[in-house]
Amino acid sequence: MPLYLKRVELHGFKSFADRIEIEFGPGINAIVGPNGSGKSNITDAIRWVLGEQSVRNLRGSKLEDVIFAGSNTKKPMGMAEVSITLDNSDKLLPLDYSEVCFTRRVFRSGESEFFLNKTPCRLKDIQEILMDTGIGKDGYSIIGQGQVDEILTGRSEERRAILEETAGIMKHKARKKEAEKRMEETVGNMVRIDDILAEIQNQLEPLKLQKEKALEYKRLLEQLKQLDINLLLAEISRIEKKASHIKNSIEENQTSLQKIINERALLHQGMMNDSAQLELLEKDYEIYQQKAFDAGTKRKDLEKDLQWTKDEEKRLWLEQQELSGNIENLRRKISEVKNGLGQKIKVLEQKIKDINGLELKITEGEKELVCVDDSIKKKENLIESLKGDVIDLLNFASEKRNMITSLTAMKTNLENRLKQIRKEICLLDESNNKTRAEIENIKGMIENLTLQCEQKQKQIQDTQDYILKLGSTLEEKRVLSIKKGEELSALASRFKALKEVNESFEGYQYGVRNLLSSIKNNKLNGEGLYGALADIISVDRTYEVAIETALGGALQNIVCDTEEHAKRAIEYLKRHDLGRVTFLPLNTIKPRGLDAEEIKILSMKGCIDTADHLTTCGKKFLPVIGHLLGRVIVVDKMDNAIAIARRCRFSLKIVTLDGELFNPGGSITGGSQKKSSLILSRKRELQEFEEKIARSEKDLAIIRQECTRIEGDYQEYLKMVDSCKNAVFNLKSEIAALERELKEKQTVFNEREHKKSQLESEIDDIKTQTVDIDAQIISVQKDIGSIDIKNTSSQSKVKDLQQQLSRDRSKREMLAQRITDLKVQLASHKQEEISLEQNIQNEEENLQTWSRELKVLEDKFEQNERSMSMAKDKVLNYAEQMTNYAELEKDLLTKVDNLKKQRESLKKALEESQAKFNRLEEEQKKLERKLNECIVDETALNMEFNQVRGKLMERYSLTVEQALNFKKEIGSILEMKEKITALQQEIESLGIVNLQAVDDYDNLKSRYDFLKAQRDDLKEAKDKLDSLIKEITKTMEDMFLSSFEKVREEFKKVFTELFGGGKADLIIEGDCSMLEAGIDIIAQPPGKKLQSISLLSGGEKALTAIALLFAILNIKATPFCILDEIEAALDDANIDRFASYLRKVAGHTQFIIITHRKNTMAIADALYGIAMEETAVSKVLTVKLE
Questions:
Q1: HAMAP family recorded for this chain (predicted)?
Q2: Higher-confidence position of 926 and 401
């Protein structure tokens, strides 16, 4: 037989506490036993290991119900395990194993495990392997009485499941379900991507404009870089020319210095050679001293080796004496055993001859015993025949008496039943009253849960509306965050540029810029120098233009403590050719002011105050401010300034808030002024930028915090929606469970009412049956008297035959005793034979062992002889080496004394050379000091060069060599400066520039293109999935229809055969899809009209369902089929038809039947008895039937 169920192993599953293994064979296997013994637990176990997840289908209420719960003598178990082994010799299952074992294990903790051939796997793996084989929890390989009812009374749509398994479309169905799931995911992904694409589309256009602006900014910045680099290269060219003159002076001093250095080098080389020679002598001295020591040590070591070798030679001699004795003893033992072994072999041969003689005598006695047994058997058969007649008469009499007892019992039972029925009617009334109350309670619970469900759904809707608002708010905040980030980036860029301008002293005169840079870079000691006047004073924004116009170039004057500090700075400027600077020594500058007449002018129209009063500075700098601005009047506008100038007769400097300047003497300066040229405003602008950046950073942090908070709230509300949905699902599940319970309660209520009606009818039947039983008892008593007379005659004949049989049995016992005595002698002789053979074998093994030991001792003896010879050779060798090392030690000590004398002589010569070397060193130092003075001047130029080079590196990360690649003929330094100013104004006119926009746009565009490609891919995948689903559906419909027609025709044949006539049919209901239509069963048993199966009797329904099962097995045989009491509702005639047909189909399907019916048991190839010898613990007994 191909694939079949070979073995089931249960441990801890339900009532099978101990490990039970049941071996099933091909054909029909019947499982029998009383009710409650645990037969159906075997079906549950197989169903469970094949993947059943519903505990109710396993006749439990929770998963741990399948684990052994304990008994009076056994503790509960913590685990249940079931394994089934399938014979897969024909490779029907897609696995390269001749046996396939599925195992399922569950623990009380709820953890569940699946194994395939002892290897962990998933339930899905097992289901895929068994798919379309008919095996599985949803297949037709396991059919119980409840499933028979479901096939017959269930909805027609549910009936199609078993036919789908027959059609082999379960794999296609699983593929279709997987494809539909992927289709749903694909559509969801497309919707999400469409939303993202729409959002990105809105961001792309404004970001594109920002990108174009940023690219223009970079272009202008690149031009500015080109001009600035060429300006710096012009400065470098000037510095290099000046450095060339200083370099010539340095070379002259270096030539003189080199002569002395060369002379010292020659002397130093001689000293080094003497030192090296001295070092070699020291090393040779130490080496020869060590060699002499090593030779002495080696000589002493050889003395020790010589003594050890002599001791080893003595030890080997003693060991040889002991080995010689042991070898002689072993040789003597081997000789003695060989002599005794021959005698024992002769005794064994004689013993074998005696055994053969006894076996001949036993054979002759057994032949005589067979003749006596034949005589006894004939007499026994005759007696048994007569006894059979007696037993038949006794049985007949017993049956009659049993009939009386049975009739009496039936009468008693009927009377008891009458009492029981009346009690049952009372109990049914009580139960229905209770059930009626429970039904009302469940209805109330359903209404309450429904109300809760509606409230949760409203909460979900409200929360989802709020989530939409949060999402909109979050998007607005993100846009605002991006905008603020761009503003901050622009502010930071302008602040950095302004700071770089300020730190590089842009706008200052050449000399002032060089002086301030030198102080900043610590090239010039800044003690007593306070910096430019512009850095010392502070002016309100309103008066910045007026004050800067009034001071003019004085803003760049350097304030210092004394004339000496000014002098030191001027000398530095002259020495390094760094330009000119005006200094304001605090000890010489005196403040100036208006006289009494001029003070009156301050009260004129438009006059604000003198400029010194509108300027703030440190107290020590007030004389400077008074000196420069004490006689400068600030006026609001030009008309008023003209009037005041005329009043003072053009003797004072007057400046307006717009920067028009009236000089003493009458000249007037005015016109437009570049905004960026104001030095005073830089410090204020830097401070304002710092404040703006701080505010922007704070605003951006607040916005980002709000985004984070809103995102957190968004996620929390999403979780709340999920939680509410889960709650709604749970509530709906509870409502569905309660509705099922309500339906069950109503069904039970109706069934009780129906049963009560049946019980009342039964009371009338019982009264009629009691009268019939009394009449039958009188008739049976007359038959018993006639049977007793016939029985007495048969018993007399049996007695005579038994006396003859007794004599034959005595003769047989004598013969049997004689044979037994001979067998005892034979057994004794055989035991002696075995003992002798064992003794001989032991001695032969001892001989082999001693021979091996003798070989080992002899080898050891020879090895020791060789070792002794080698030891003697070593003694001679060590003595010779000791003599050689003694002579070597003496020669080495003589060499050590000679080296010591040479070392002392060389040390004295080296001391004289060192004195001359020191004199030359003093002369060298004098020349080096002269050279250093020249180098200081060169260093100053290098510093200036490095300053310019540092600007190249700081601003553009370029070396001078790299900067030369940018060199172009642009014009003079002045022309380059004018072009730089124009470019700066053009850059400033661009306003806020988001440099990140270039990367942001490219990244966003790439993301847009990527998402669009993904969307296209998803569309293509959706179309392919749609085609795949249609293709699978078409394949399933074709396969189902083909299989359905085959099952339909076979069902008609099997139905007619099982019912002995009649007809039946399977009908596809409705106009819907082939894969959704219901299946109806129409049956017409012999002598009845064609009708729906629901109108048949219980037995007819069962036999119709069995006919459908056999029809399916004929079309597509399952490897094995488990039938759990499916024939319980059949009468004896139908049982015989069922059993006959079952035997017919057992040729291609293995059957495992759980049954109480003897007719079914009679056709079984093997019976498996299930019993409970111990409460709650099932045992198995197997009986093979030939």
A1: Smc_prok (MF_01894)
A2: 926
Would you say residue 9 has pLDDT above 50?
yes
Distance, CA of 659 to CA of 1026 (rounded, Å): 81
Alpha carbon 385 to its chain's center:
80
**Residue position matching structure tokens 């009679």:** 1162
37 appears as a binding residue in the annotation: yes
Let me know if domain 1-141+1118-1186 sits in CATH 3.40.50.300.
yes
- Binding residue per annotation — 1092? no
Residue 1085 annotated as binding? Answer: no
Say yes or no to pLDDT of 1120 above 90. no
Average confidence (pLDDT) over 711-723: 80
Is residue 947 within 8 A of residue 517, CB to CB? The reply is: yes
Q: What secondary structure does DSSP assign to 785-819, as a single string?
A: HHHHHHHHHHHHHHHHHHHHHHHHHHHHHHHHHHH
The secondary structure element, H or E, covering residue 84 is strand 79-87
Q: Which DSSP helix (H) or strand (E) runs through 168?
A: none
Which of the four pLDDT bands, split at 50, 70 and 90, describes residue 677? Answer: very low
Cross-strand partners of 585: 560
Q: Which amino acid is at 448?
A: N
Is the CB of residue 75 less than 8 Å from the CB of residue 1? no
Is 416 annotated as a binding-site member?
no
Is the Cβ–Cβ distance between 585 and 567 less than 8 Å? Answer: no
Q: Which two tokens stand for residue 591?
A: 């403040």
Query: Within 13 Å of residue 224, how many CA atoms lie on the same side as its CB?
Result: 18
Per the rule left: phi > 0, alpha: psi between -120 and 50, beta: everything else, 552 is left
Q: What is the pLDDT of residue 634?
A: 94
- In the chain, the amino acid numbered 1170 is I
Backbone angles phi, psi at 870, to 5 degrees: -65, -35
pLDDT of residue 398: 58
Please say if the pLDDT value at position 127 is more than 70: yes
In degrees and rounded to multiples of 5, residue 660 shows phi and psi of: -75, 135
3-state secondary structure of 1169: strand
6 is in an annotated binding site: no
Query: What span, in angstroms and rounded, lies between the C-alpha atoms of 954 and 506?
Result: 15
Across 1047-1072, average pLDDT: 81
Q: Residue 484 has which token pair?
A: 């603020």
The CATH number of domain 508-678, selected from 3.30.1330.60, 1.10.3470.10, 3.30.70.1620, 3.40.50.261: 3.30.70.1620
Question: Tell me: the pLDDT tens digits for 957-986?
Answer: 777 777 777 777 777 778 787 888 888 778
Strands of 1020-1165 (E only): list them.
1063-1068, 1079-1084, 1091-1092, 1120-1124, 1150-1154
For residue 634, what are the contacts with CB-CB under 8 A and spacing of at least 6?
543, 546, 547, 550, 607, 608, 609, 610, 611, 614, 654, 655, 656, 657
Which of the given ranges, 614-618, 851-855, 862-866, 954-958, has the highest pLDDT on average? 614-618
Domain boundaries, the chain: 1-141+1118-1186, 508-678
- pLDDT (tens digit, 9 = 90+) per residue, 463-486? 877 877 777 787 777 778 777 777
41 is an annotated ligand-binding site residue: yes
User: Structure pTM?
Assistant: 0.38
Contact in structure between 959 and 952 (CB atoms under 8 Å):
yes
